[in-house]
Amino acid sequence: MQPVLLWLRRDLRLADNPALTRALDTGQPVIPVYLHAPEEEAPWFPGAASRWWLHHSLNALSCALTAAGSRLILRQGGSLECLLQLLDETGAGQVIWNRTYEPALIQRDRRIKAALKDRGVRVESCNSALLFEPWTVSNKSGEPYRVFTPFWKACCAKGLPDDVATLPESITAPAHWPVSDDLKQWALLPRISWDQGLAQRWQPGEAGAHHALERFLAHGVLTYKTGRDLPGQPGTSRLSPHLHFGEIGPRQLIRACQRLQQQGIGTEGSTSVAAFIREIGWREFAFHLLFHFPQTPEHPLDQRFEHFPWRKPEDYADDLAAWQHGLTGIPLVDAGMRELWHTGWMHNRVRMITASLLVKNLGIPWQEGARWFWDTLVDADLASNTLGWQWTAGCGADAAPYFRVFNPVLQGERFDGQGAYIRHWVPELEHLPDRYLHAPWTAPASLIPPAYPRPRVDLGASRKTALAAWEQLKEHSRLSPGGSVP
DNA sequence: AGCCTTTTGAG
DNA sequence: TCAAAAGGC
Q1: Which of A125, A185, A231, A241 fits A379 for a cystine, CB–CB 3.0-4.6 Å?
Q2: To which H or E segment does residue A4 belong?
Q3: How far: A403 CA to B9 C1' (Å)?
Q4: Active site residues per annotation of A
Q5: What is the CATH number of the domain that holds A67?
Q6: Is residue A336 part of a domain?
Q7: What molecular function terms (GO) are annotated for this protein (predicted)?
Q8: Looking at the domain assignment, is residue A319 inside a domain?
Q9: Distance from residue A414 (CA) to nucleotide B6 (C1'), in Å?
Q10: What is the pLDDT, as a whole number, of residue A236?
């Protein structure tokens, strides 16, 4: 019987996978394929941490498919060329996939869909990644939302989808399997092994995603509202990389939350679960914004910021390097940057704080931070990363106003009071008493650990400079709206 | 989802 | 005198 191709991309799971369900519903044999074509994601080629995750996730998916009586076929090259080749080799007449939403991938998929249809191939695409696809939500005048709360209200009014297809017991195999690449030959893993920290922390793949969810449901979600702010405690879901690669989907999370809500979980539990669902909403909002404003990975949504007086690369290179390597001399910031480097992930509150320091105190353009996060995060996601950086820089939709500057000393005292997080990631400061831990430069000279750098910025002075620059920019924009600044 | 300074008002 | 509230960036 004529098989169908199931083209897997950011949907590396078997449960709640509409494209897989559709493929099974045809009653024909299914050939699952993953195509490696990183250049098609230009200019946002997958970063090193992301490639590490992809390698292990594909391994896991391949095992799961094998256990279900199927296989994962790997091919490298242009996606269209690979698909045509596979259609030719297998005699398949239909391709099914789940949609992606990054600008470059939308273009590619559109091109491929048209080319396949031209050749008489049946093509079908589904939604696995989102509760609401970006073109299905708009305000009364038909415009995309630019503010989160009304956006999310409109989503909730539609009803959050929680319909989840059951896990297939087996997947019908074709009479003949096409040959597959050997995953190792794609060289997704780093050549020098800096990845032990990642391997220790993460279990990529669908099973790992469900372990992470179970842990969170049992230990984090009921205290999420306050627990998520404490970087020294595992109070967040840590699902972001699993979500990015589609090892688990938002509908599954909504369903799990609704099950919890039906049990008696008390007021704190209930508001905590609601807070978590709201975070899923921010993820949806990020996709909404990226789809409707595809220039935002590179350009600020608020055009006034095109003329912001950022420092120049030759002036900030040393500060940028110090920030990247966790050597700014500001403990909470260095702790976060080192957590990122060692585990490919950073606690959300610390992301806001490290980003604020880069953009506001160091005067470095947010795009530099976005690029570094892109390369080092295992959860690097163009939509979420763009929203996060523009939020911090104050130039995005519903962003934090520019004048909101985080003070990493105060934030440390407030959210890492006992210093568990800082001491874990900045061992030079292990023995510094709590009262000096967040600002070692205020300690008596005899207590300051010589191995730890002096702070690279004066937090108070740089804050003033940043606010003054913002006031001036506003003034210029008022005088010459949309125009250039002298 | 902030910080800093000034003002207010109870004691 | 000091904590809380308010106001500006």
Answers
A1: A241
A2: strand A4-8
A3: 29
A4: 279, 282, 310, 348, 366, 389
A5: 3.40.50.620
A6: yes
A7: deoxyribodipyrimidine photo-lyase activity; DNA binding; FAD binding
A8: yes
A9: 24
A10: 98
Those residues with Cβ within 8 angstroms of residue A478's Cβ, 6 or more apart along the chain or in another chain: none
A399 is in an annotated binding site: no
Amino acid in position A160: L
Number of domains in chain A: 3
A272 and A287 co-located in one domain: yes
Return the number of other C-beta atoms located less than 10 Å from residue A179's C-beta.
8
Considering A161-170, A190-199, A289-298, the range whose residues carry the highest mean pLDDT is: A289-298
Confidence of residue A483 (pLDDT cuts 50, 70, 90): low
Q: Domain check: are A77 and A150 in the same one? A: no
pLDDT (mean) for A315-342: 98
Is the same domain home to A367 and A439? yes
Query: A358-381 pLDDT, tens per residue?
Result: 999 999 999 999 999 999 999 999
| Tokens describing residue A183 | 């995953």
The whole model's pTM is what? 0.97
Q: Is the CB of A154 under 7 A from strand B?
A: no
- Side by side, the strands of the sheet bearing A30-36 are A73-76, A30-36, A4-8, A94-98, A122-126
A193 in a structural domain: no
Distance A305 CA to C8 C1' (A): 21
Q: How many CB atoms lie within 10 A of CB A480?
A: 11
The residue whose two tokens read 């972001």 is A240
Q: Does A91 have pLDDT greater than 70?
A: yes
Verify if strand B has an atom below 7 Å from the CB of A460.
yes
A402: CB within 7 A of chain C nucleic strand? no
What is the DSSP code (8-state) at residue A140?
Answer: T
Among candidate residues A243, A240, A238, the one with its CA nearest the CA of residue A221: A238
In Å, how far from its chain's centre is CA A225?
21
Q: Percent of chain A having pLDDT more than 70?
A: 99
CA–CA gap between residue A374 and residue A387 (Å, rounded): 13
Cis, peptide link before residue A486, omega less than 30° from 0: no
- Domain-ending residue, one of A103, A128, A153: A128
What is the C-alpha separation between A469 and A297, in angstroms, rounded?
23
Q: Is the pLDDT of residue A102 over 80?
A: yes
Of A128, A153, A183, the one marking the end of a domain is A128
Rounded Cα gap, residues A439 and A413, in angstroms: 10
Half-sphere CA count of A315, side-chain side, radius 13 A: 8
The alpha carbons of chain A give a radius of gyration, in whole angstroms, of: 24
Q: Is the CB of A407 under 7 A from strand B?
A: yes
For residue A359, give its domain range. Answer: 303-478
CA of A175 to C1' of B6 (A): 80
The residue behind tokens 């939709």 is: A397
Contact A278/A237 with Cβ under 8 angstroms?
A: no
Q: Shortest CA distance to A215 belongs to which of A245, A242, A244, A246?
A: A242
Please check whether residue A174 is in contact with residue A31, taking contact to mean a CB–CB distance below 8 angstroms: yes
Q: Which residue has the tokens 């585990």?
A: A343
Is any atom of nucleic acid chain B found less than 7 Å from the CB of residue A404?
Answer: yes
